[in-house]
């Protein structure tokens, strides 16, 4: 994409970029990978996915962020030429204008091309400070550009990527019990809510239950091998899995500040569990938000 003319880039970064035929996307996989070491467990998990999706019926791309030296910071350098308002620079608005004009930096437009083709996106990473590594968060900040990955009208259940699936596959430093509802780290469901809802679901992705590798650095070799084999088994049916459940956009009243419509709240009044981890209505959290292996 870096050799395209400005006109061509404008077409590729408009809504037309998302009009790729379903048959072309059906088995295209993008792995967004963040680990510094080729000898890491994360590298092994990424390689298992590469092996599974090396079959002739798949197309697979890998964005190896450290190998690419991917720029994590969202700055005016992401725009070719002058910005609209240099004194009060607003990244989302300026990059949306650059997207429309075909003036986004080449590294962003290249990732747009990969993402537009993908039916499934696997984020493979070690959990750092209860979130993504900085380099992967930078990929999210820069590649999920306003006007490309979301807009005011195209988000959540009406999102741009509603025909795509995404999954978080990651390692932890802590044992599973530490991420329980009574564990010192707190409920993993709560930890994942900003990532799964606030990023993936916000952009419309069908979010698959995460693949969590609990503290592999503390596990014996045979257990690490078992973890990877379970991942291999799951990967073989991943594209056919049902996604997690999130509350649809039309359940919220836009005119009243996007709060649940009264009829939705009333329907949920007698339920034992909340709608989701974040929209829990002061009830027990749903039990079906995470999946650790198979």
From TrEMBL:
Major localisation: cytoplasm
The answer on whether this UniProt entry bears the keyword Electron transport reads no
Keyword Repressor found: no
Gene3D superfamilies reported in the protein's UniProt record: 3.40.50.360
Give the record's GO CC terms.
Answer: cytosol
Give the main EC class: oxidoreductase
Q: Where in the cell is it found?
A: Cytoplasm
What does the subunit section of this Swiss-Prot or TrEMBL entry state? Homodimer.
Q: What does this protein do?
A: The enzyme apparently serves as a quinone reductase in connection with conjugation reactions of hydroquinones involved in detoxification pathways as well as in biosynthetic processes such as the vitamin K-dependent gamma-carboxylation of glutamate residues in prothrombin synthesis.
Q: Of which family is this protein a member?
A: Belongs to the NAD(P)H dehydrogenase (quinone) family.
Q: What is this protein called?
A: Ribosyldihydronicotinamide dehydrogenase [quinone]
- UniProt source species: Takifugu bimaculatus
């Amino acid at each position: 994409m870096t050799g395209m003319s400005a006109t061509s880039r404008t077409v590729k970064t408009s809504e037309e970029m998302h009009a790729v035929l379903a048959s072309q996307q059906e088995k295209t996989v993008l792995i967004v990978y963040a680990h510094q070491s080729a000898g890491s467990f994360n590298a092994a998990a990424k390689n298992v996915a590469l092996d599974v999706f090396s079959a002739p019926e798949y197309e697979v791309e890998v964005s190896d962020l450290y190998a690419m030296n991917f720029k994590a910071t969202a700055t005016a350098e992401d725009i070719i030429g002058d910005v609209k308002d240099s004194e009060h620079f607003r990244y989302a608005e300026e990059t949306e204008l650059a997207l429309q004009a075909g003036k986004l930096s080449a590294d962003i437009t290249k990732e747009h091309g990969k993402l537009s083709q993908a039916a499934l996106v696997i984020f493979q990473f070690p959990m750092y400070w209860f979130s993504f590594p900085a380099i992967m968060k930078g990929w999210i900040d820069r590649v999920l550009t306003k006007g490309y990955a979301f807009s005011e009208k195209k988000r959540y259940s009406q999102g741009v990527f509603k025909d795509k699936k995404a999954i978080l596959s990651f390692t932890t430093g802590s044992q599973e019990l530490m991420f329980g509802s009574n564990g010192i780290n707190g409920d993993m469901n709560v930890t994942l809510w900003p990532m799964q809802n606030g990023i993936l679901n916000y952009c419309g992705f069908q979010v698959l239950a995460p693949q969590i590798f609990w503290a592999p650095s503390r596990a014996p070799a045979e257990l690490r091998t078992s973890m990877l084999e379970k991942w291999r088994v799951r990967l073989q049916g991943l594209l056919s899995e049902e996604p997690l459940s999130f509350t649809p956009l039309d359940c919220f009243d836009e005119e009243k500040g996007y709060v649940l419509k009264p009829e939705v709240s009333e329907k949920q009044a007698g339920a034992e569990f909340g709608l989701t981890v974040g929209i829990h209505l002061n009830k027990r959290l749903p039990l079906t938000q995470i999946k650790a292996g198979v």
